[in-house]
Automatic annotation (TrEMBL):
GO BP, sorted A to Z: sterol metabolic process
Keyword Transcription: no
Gene3D superfamilies documented for this protein: Cytochrome P450
InterPro entries: Cyt_P450, Cyt_P450_E_grp-I, Cyt_P450_sf
Keywords: Heme, Iron, Metal-binding, Monooxygenase, Oxidoreductase
Binding-site positions, heme: 464
Protein family according to the UniProt entry: Belongs to the cytochrome P450 family.
Name of the molecule in the record: Cytochrome P450 family 809A-CYP809A1
Any one Gene Ontology molecular-function term assigned to this protein's record: heme binding
Organism: Chondrus crispus
PANTHER family: CYTOCHROME P450 26, LANOSTEROL 14-ALPHA DEMETHYLASE
Names of the cofactor(s): heme
Amino acid sequence: MHVAFVFAPRLLNHSVGAQQHRRRPVCAASPPPQTEAPLPTPVAIPVYRRLPLIGFFIDVFTRNLKVRELSPRYGPVYKSDVLGFPVTIISDLDAIKACYKDSEVFRSGGAFPFSLSTLFGDKALFILDGKEHATKRKPVMPAFSPQLFPLYFSSIQEDARSFWRKVSQQVERDGTSKLQNAFKEHYLGIIIRLTTGGQYASSEASAEAQFLRVRDLLLAVAGGMITFPFGPVWWKALRARDELIDILGGLVRDRLSTRKDTIEALREVDADRIAAKARGELRAGSLDLLTVLVSTTSLPTDAGAELDETTLRELCELVLLLWFAGYSTQASASSCCLMELGFNADIHGRLRDEQDAIVRARDGDLDMTLEQVNKEMPLLDSYINEILRLYPPAPVLFRKTAKATTVCGHAIAVGTIVGLDAWGGQRNAAYYAEPETLKVERFVAGGEAPGVVSFGGVGGAHFCLGAALGRVGMKATVGTMVREFDIRVDERQDREYVSVPEMTPKSGVEVRMCRRREGI
């Protein structure tokens, strides 16, 4: 949940050749060699795109957010451009992983998209690097501890069941349902309710209206990620961000006054024990993710105490970032999951057989625990990993080099914008057999090692905080659909995938469906 919100260029019709290159390690700590062949430029960059801002305005206006080409067949490192800016693309998977881990050289600050600091603050986790990033990241990590996932899962599973009921009702009414935007609202609802507890969970009209307002504001912020600066969409995004910060500030103040005992109890234990303590509180129904995050700050719980506005705003910006990350990546990946199930009846059938066997063993009980999902559904887990390999929600993430370095033997100058091409790297025959083929069993135990760059990195300081939680949400949503509903994807849809800014099917995901079982 850390990354699909960053700009990822549009990917169109990129056939990846089977040519393999010899993998060489990243030499991030080494100075560049004195003699080095120039980096290849596989597709000529038109002269007009090199003029200041011309390429940017053309691409944003046409929504043709496209890297000149993306393919490992051009070599592990090569030149391209994004929005009119020169970019060095790294498509070797080992090199990509090494770059993620070396945040001293490959830094987030100053890289694409330039709108991050404006929308989410100069102290956003996306932008910070090195010790500053680690210092800010460490206190919030207990809120994403796997110890809490079983408790999160029960809420997520119920949300998933409610979501598919609504979709089936829409199909009964309209004949079909378009899932792409529905997925966004679904995952947005999950992350907001996990954060705020029952704040927006009530069926009352006022709670529903509040949730819809928050949803619309967050979507407006997302619209400002890639747009003309100082245009109407940009100003709308800034106004929406400010209103969301005010809403979150009110929620934080509410937690400080109504959850004082819980917050102080969490502050009494060290960071390694917060998750265990929080799990006990969650069982009592007295805690939500926001309360855990508040407990990691120094904000006072005493009535009438003055709050440090900088600390308060940074916390609100962090939650806003989590909300944004929490829906966009999962919505993108789930859309790809459903599209591929629609075009691969054999895979759909194998996943359904796995679910049916589990339900039969449980005497028809449809409610699952996270432990059962993790241990008894290896094919579903493998399928989700395979979708994330082929269609990573953030196909390309960007870094800026803080010093001169070498990657796979190629010199890269200081100040270079680098694109880490997970989309191409994960379709490289040097790493995966039949890389263009969707193989549902690829990551079943004993198969190829996952190593998938999915929700924004596979290691290092910037590893996505919510990557594991994102998989939990996808398992609950996709698993519930396969287990409890029959679904058919409209065959007229285009199987081309684009990324503006996240990877999604170009034609959307239009489905027909009905319930498989009674009593759900």
